[in-house]
Design a protein that fits this description.
alpha/beta, globular, 14 strands, five-stranded parallel sheet, binds calcium ion
Length: 222
């Protein structure tokens, strides 16, 4: 995989670069927001690993800018603090996953693999729910003829919903699909992701597709 690493700590950057490189990836490193933005917008990387504290700004802001510019490359944020707020904030600005420093290298490798995992080609390619069209293969999504761009995690959530149209699904089922098994997201992290998906596919439409069932979970359908 082609990985863009935006990290200003030279020691940590070298460890990540060498470690991921040894595992067959090509890693391009940037140590500032400005350099990271330039590299990211070349749009030739499969995953972006993004530090929060950078010399010329914040990784949160860079993440938000990249999403605003329409970039949907999976983003893994490296947060220095063991703070729920940081994690939630990262997801709110469009990151797909996060890792708290210090981390075991094996965990970074697992997260990167999970974000870059190719999706199985067995499911039906197109799922239609009311006026929403989801192409699971090309990831082309539209509602009422309007194109919708999703991040990797938002797509994983919609993909799960698309496989369970009309069914009641629990938080645990969603979590197991959207995050890898070692991941134990806080309840509000899932809610943030649901809110982000709602904003993109339900906002502005009278007919809502994502329904919250108090105490039970969620139901996706018209
Ligand atoms: Ca830093």
């Amino acid at each position: 995989m082609h990985i863009l690493l935006v990290e200003d700590d030279p020691m940590l950057a070298a460890v990540i670069e060498n470690g991921l490189g040894e595992r067959g990836n090509s890693v391009v490193a940037a140590s500032t927001v400005a350099a990271g933005r330039l590299r990211a917008m070349e749009k030739n990387c499969d995953i972006i690993i993004l530090d929060i504290g950078l010399p010329d700004g914040s990784g949160f802001d860079l993440c938000r800018d990249l999403r605003a510019a329409g970039l949907d490359t999976p983003i893994l944020m490296l947060t220095a603090r063991e703070s729920v707020q940081d994690r939630v904030h990262g997801l709110e600005v469009g990151a797909d996953d996060y890792l708290t420093k210090p981390f075991a290298f094996s965990e970074l490798v697992a997260r990167v693999a999970a974000l870059g995992r190719r999706r199985p080609q067995l499911a039906p390619a197109i799922v239609k729910v009311a006026d929403l069209n989801v192409n699971l293969r090309t990831r082309f999504i539209s509602r009422a003829g309007r194109d919708i761009t999703l991040t990797a995690k938002e797509f994983a959530l919609l993909e799960f919903f698309a496989g369970h149209v009309g069914e009641v699904v629990t938080r645990a089922q969603i979590t197991a699909h959207v995050w890898d098994d070692n991941h134990d997201p806080f309840t509000n992290v899932l809610e943030v992701l649901i809110r982000r998906l709602r904003r993109k596919i339900d906002d502005g439409f009278d007919l809502k597709l994502i329904h919250t069932l108090r105490g039970a979970g969620y139901r996706f359908g018209a």
